[in-house]
Every structure is written in structure tokens, then in C-alpha cells.
Amino acid sequence: MATPAAPLALIAGAGRFPFFVAQAARRQGARVIAFGLRGWVDASLASHVDVYEELAVGELGRLIERLKAHGVSRAIMAGKVTKRVLLDPRTRFDSDALAVLAHVKHVSVNGLLGAIAARLAGEGVTLLDSSTFLGGSLCPEGVLTARQPTPEQEADIVVGMAAARCLAALDIGQTVIVKQRVVVAVEALEGTDAAIARAHALAGEGLTVVKMAAPAQDRRFDLPVIGLDTLHSLRQAGVACLAVQPGATLLLERERLIAEADAAGVCIVGRQPT
Known about the structure:
With 274 residues, this protein is of the alpha/beta class.
């Protein structure tokens, strides 16, 4: 009799990223038990996993209890949950979550999720690199689209990369929008799409968007992800060029993404920070 695959817990936030993780993990033989974060997750994820449950964002104790009930020893986080949950009066944190928050000196993504990862490790659950099952989707270096960046866009990329690297290092955001070597907008609590829309309102079309991981990025969470939804936001805002960090950025549905970028006249570049 074949030994059943060890279960994998998928802690799922917003967007399509959790769907791709679930599909790839199951294809590689994992039994996927998804814990959707209520108010963020797309509940149709239930039809793409072996077991599906929902929890509120602040129910850390309940999450630990359910992980143990399913005999889980490894987990992966995928999907967006922004820090605005910390400012939302409707968010209710249980005693376990409050204990973690109390010991976090700086409420950043890496700080907060790192503390949660340590708490899970103390319960025998290892949090995996979020690209574990999607290594083939990591962005390569170079220009990926038919359209090459113009000299003006190359200059904007240099400016944007320097700013985005600092922004990510401070754990404020990952995205900077530039035009004519002027930083037009930076991402903070509002998220990438809203920052891009704000830049368009301020400076019009012809924008260059740069998205960078932190210099010491914890790959277990908040790895930059580019998908068709991102491309839609770029097109809506008249963005001409997108530069991301190769090896540290996931491109979901890469072939389709590049084809649609070509059709829209958007240049996508994988560029290492200097």
C-alpha cells in the first residue's frame, strides 16, 4: 500500500496566488489543506484543494489547533493580507495573536509574520518558502517582452530600483512609480494597484513601475507576485514599463502574461539591483 503524502497547509489570503500554489503542490503529490483567511480569500479555492476551512485573520490559536488536528508539519503562506487589518477596529485578535503582537518591536510584514512563523515552529509546523512549488515561475533576468525599454525608461528603472530597494528595506512597500526620472508615487498601506492608480492621476501615461524585494527578503512571505490582475492595473494606468527583480519575483501564468503584455505594448524587464 502506498504511503499517503504528508499534508501541506495552505494559509490563503487574497488573489490568485493561492490557487497556483494549490495546483502545483497537488501536482507534486501533496495533500493540500487550505485555511482561507475570511474577508480576503476567494472561497472558490475550496474546489482546488483536498480540505478547505476558513478562519478570521486574528485567530492564531484556532489556526494552530486546526493544524494539529490535521497532523500538519509544514505550511505555506500565499495571497495578500495587508497591514490595514491591524488598524481595522473590526479585527479581533485572540490571546495567541495578541501575545505575538506584544513581542513585535516593529509592526512590519517581516517582523509580524516572522513572529508568527516562530510561533508555528514552536508547535512543530515549518513555514516554507512561498515559491517552493512554483520555482519555474520565478522571473528570469533580462527583457521578457518583444518591446524593449527605451533609454528614458532605462533611466527611470535606475531611479526606481534605488528608491524601491530602500522602500522594501524599511518594509513600507515594494513598488515605486517613476516618470522622467521623477518618483511619482510609492506604495505603502494602500497596495500596489492603488499606488499605480494614484501615480496615473498625478502624472498621466508613460509611467515606469519598479517592484523590488527587500535586500534581506524572507521568502516565506511577501515575495513579489506579478499576475494578469497586475497587468490589468498597468494597462488601466498607461504604464509603459515594468521592472522586477529576477529570482525573487513570481510571474503567474508567465506565457500568457508576456503575450498580453506584448499585445498591450507594455515592456517587462527582469533586472538585478546594483
